[in-house]
Structure formats: structure tokens, C-alpha cells
Specification:
CATH architecture: Up-down Bundle
Shape: globular
CATH topology: Growth Hormone, Chain: A
Strand order of the largest sheet: 1-2
Structural class: mainly alpha
Radius of gyration: 20 Å
Strand content: under 5%
Largest sheet: 2 strands, parallel
CATH class: Mainly Alpha
Distance between the termini: 48 Å
Number of helices: 14
Number of strands: 2
Helix content: over 70%
Length: 399
């Protein structure tokens, strides 16, 4: 494979024993800007679909199709990371993201928006699979939980400002200008990522792609757990702004700010707790907090309960997600980290996509409140599955 295509650093430059290297800072900054552009569209796209004449069902489809297209491309991204290199996959994904988000500003029909959301999902699947793999390359193995927590913090900071900033801007500028701003943020991420010294990938050492090699087996248990949890995110991202408006409850901007602040708080201890005590110390407490949050959102009598639900959801999700990601990479061979991350994010996408589409139907038929009761049941399924995985792993251990 040509060196002009994959300009990657020598292997010894990766993983120097400390987390905060030059390249790790660059991947965190790049992740921050692309997530900021993405998060600004998260609560505003449902409003944009509504402006174009769409109902709850169409909102669910437009939100969900994005995650399904990302899901379909992730196995290809995982293979490309090991064959074509981290740089090629990451920059390609970011370029597609910039193009697609910028095109939203010129959308005049739901059909065109639907098509561009599919394209955006392809770019998102490539870029996020690559960025997570790049981060794991750069973090020392014995600090992976802590390092992934810090890496995730870059996206959480974007989450703290993105949704609220998007909602604030859409009140004073047009959707066209909003989406162009989001595209510029993605472009900034692309420029920063071009300066990273990537892990070297040798063409002769690239793995042969098997016909049905769509996932990394060792990453399946944590990825399945994540699926049932991210179903809840599909209901929050797609319908919570509409639900609060229907109830006449103000402060949806504060929901996203408080959620992100709680998420950031967990990054200061959850990763270290995982490194020292394993996923048993973080999974059950985190999922119980998410479960309580879903019950509160289903009830939702006022802004105070909305804010409490935001904090609980942020604490819970911020505790569970980085631990599950570190778990999914831990059991995979070094040359399968790309596929392990692809598997992990595929189940993330699948949960959000199924949640958005299913909740669009549930909200239309039974009302928004029922969305969060069903989401609570999904979290309960994750807890039950976790105990099943633990029992199965204990049975396999030698006496």
C-alpha cells in the first residue's frame, strides 16, 4: 500500500507510558469539534423535520436512519482501519460528515433530508470508529479505562454546550446558517486530525478479511449491554424536546447542560474505578441511575424533576459507557481493536436507531410518556443480561 495514502508514525511513538501526549490531545480536540457540530443538530433536527411538515413517525425515521447507515458501514470501517490505516479512515469519515451536515442548510424536502442523513451516517460511522481506535492506540494499556474516560470527556464537553447552543442559535438565525456552522466545526476537526501521528499499518501485515467477518467476538458481551442502554438515548434525543413542549415545561436547554455536567463528573473517577476494580464496580450502580431517570421522565410533572432526571442519566451513562468500551477492547487482539470498536459502536448505533424509530411509533400511538416506560424496561433487560453474562463467565472459569 502506498505511503502517500497512509502517513503514519512509527509504532514506538505510540503509547509512551503517559496519557496526555501531543497526539492524544489532538484526537481529543478533533473529537470535541466534530461532536460539537453533531450535538448542535441533535435537538434541532426534530424541530427542522417538524418545520418541513413531518410528524412524530417521520422524526423517528429521519433520526433512526442515520444510525442504521452508520451501523452498516462500521464493519467496513473496522477492516479499513487495519488495512488502509487510521488516517485514511478518519479523514474520509470527517470529510463525508462535513459535506452532509453542510447540505442540510439547503434541504427543502424530507426526501432529500432523508438521503443526506444516510450519507451523514456513513461519515459518522467511519469517523467515530476510527477516532475511538486511534484513542486506544495512544493510551497505555494499563491506563485504558482512565484514558478512555478522558477521551470521552471531550465529547461530553461538546454535549454540555452543543444541544443548548443549537437550540439558542436556531431562535436567532436560520437553519441554513446553523447547519453551515456545524459543518465548519467538522472541518476544524478534520484540520486538527490531519496533524496526528498515527499508528503505523503495514500492508503485508494487514489481516485477510473473511466473508462474514462483521464483528469482534470478544466485544459482543459489553456491546450487547450497551445496546439496551442506548435505546433510551433514542427516546431522549428525538422526543424529549417535543415532550417538554407538550407538557409546557421550560428548561430543555438546562436538561442537556446538567446531563453533560454530570457526565463530565463521572469521567474523573469512573475510568480509574474500572481500571482498579473492573466493570462489576460500575455497571450496576450506573444502570440503576439510568433506570430511575427513565421513570422520572415518564412521570415528568415539572422542571425540577426534568433536571434531576438529567443529572441521574448523566451520572449513570457516564459511568457505564467508558467502562463498556474499555471492556470491549480489552479482550481483543491488538490487530482487532478496530473491529472491536466497530462492534461496540455498531451496537451503540443500533440501540439509538431502533429506539428512535420504535419510540416514534410508541409516542404516536400511546403518547410521549410511554416512551420512557419502555426505555426503563430496556435498561432492566440490560441488567438481567449482565448477571447472565457474569454467571456464564464464572461457570467457564477453572475451579
Amino acid at each position: 500500500m502506498g505511503n502517500s495514502l497512509i502517513k503514519e508514525a512509527p509504532r514506538q511513538s505510540v503509547g509512551s507510558g503517559k496519557i496526555w501526549t501531543r497526539d492524544f490531545i489532538l484526537i481529543c480536540l478533533s473529537n470535541f469539534f466534530v461532536f460539537l457540530g453533531f450535538q448542535m443538530t441533535l435537538p434541532t433536527l426534530p424541530l427542522f423535520v417538524e418545520k418541513l411538515g413531518g410528524n412524530d413517525q417521520l422524526i423517528g425515521v429521519v433520526v433512526g436512519i442515520f444510525t442504521f447507515s452508520a451501523l452498516l458501514i462500521r464493519p467496513s470501517a473496522g477492516h479499513a482501519l487495519e488495512s488502509k490505516g487510521r488516517r485514511f479512515v478518519f479523514l474520509t469519515g470527517l470529510g463525508i460528515f462535513v459535506f452532509s451536515v453542510g447540505s442540510f442548510g439547503f434541504v427543502k424536502s424530507l426526501l432529500f433530508l432523508f438521503i443526506m442523513r444516510i450519507i451523514q451516517g456513513l461519515g459518522w460511522g467511519y469517523s467515530t470508529t476510527a477516532s475511538g481506535t486511534i484513542a486506544t492506540d495512544l493510551i497505555p494499556a494499563d491506563k485504558r479505562g482512565e484514558g478512555m474516560g478522558y477521551y470521552g470527556l471531550s465529547g461530553n464537553i461538546a454535549l454540555a454546550f452543543g444541544p443548548s447552543l443549537g437550540l439558542a442559535l436556531v431562535g436567532v438565525i436560520s437553519y441554513t446558517h446553523l447547519f453551515l456552522i456545524c459543518a465548519v466545526l467538522g472541518l476544524l476537526a478534520l484540520l486538527l486530525s490531519s496533524k496526528i501521528r498515527y499508528k503505523q499499518v503495514e500492508a503485508k501485515a494487514a489481516p485477510q478479511v473473511k466473508k462474514w467477518d462483521f464483528y469482534e467476538k470478544s466485544a459482543l458481551p459489553p456491546s450487547l449491554l450497551l445496546f439496551f442502554i442506548t435505546v433510551t438515548f433514542g427516546g431522549i434525543a428525538s422526543f424529549l424536546p417535543l415532550f417538554t413542549a407538550q407538557r409546557g415545561i421550560e428548561g430543555i436547554q438546562w436538561y442537556f447542560l446538567l446531563y453533560a455536567a454530570a457526565l463530565m463528573l463521572t469521567r474523573t473517577f469512573a475510568g480509574k474505578l474500572y481500571d482498579s476494580r473492573g466493570h462489576q464496580a460500575v455497571f450496576i450502580p450506573g444502570t440503576i441511575l439510568i433506570l430511575i431517570s427513565m421513570f422520572l421522565l415518564s412521570w415528568l410533572p415539572n422542571s425540577t424533576i426534568l433536571y434531576i432526571a438529567a443529572v441521574l442519566y448523566g451520572l449513570g451513562f457516564g459511568t457505564v459507557q467508558p467502562a463498556l468500551q474499555a471492556w470491549s477492547v480489552k479482550g481483543s487482539p491488538p490487530n482487532r481493536r478496530g473491529m472491536a470498536n466497530a462492534t461496540f459502536f455498531s451496537f451503540f448505533d443500533l440501540g439509538v436507531g431502533i429506539g428512535a424509530m420504535a419510540f416514534g411509533q410508541i409516542g404516536h400511538l400511546f403518547g410521549y410518556s410511554s416512551i420512557y416506560m419502555v426505555a426503563a424496561f430496556s435498561v432492566l433487560c440490560s441488567i438481567i443480561l449482565y448477571f447472565f453474562i457474569l454467571m456464564k463467565s464464572n461457570v467457564r472459569k477453572p475451579a
